[in-house]
Amino acid sequence: MVSQTRLWIFIEWAATITLIIGVALTSWNVYPANIYMSALGNFLWFLMALHWKKWSLITIQTFILILYTSGMIKIMIGA
Length: 79
Known about the structure:
Layout: H1 2-27, H2 33-52, H3 55-77
Helix pairs in contact: 1-2, 2-3
């Protein structure tokens, strides 16, 4: 049980750091790395929201992930 708790703490902090890096990349206009990094951070926060069963976080992270996914698809098809 202790190792599982440590795993979730690690995921929580990894999500936070990843999202901060994504925001920094956005502020420095580092495209498209900012989208990929922010999407990863939001995905990790989505996992935390599921773990916590926190519907407000699940909802916002779902919408954010949909938007980032559409942006990544746009990048991949070159539109």
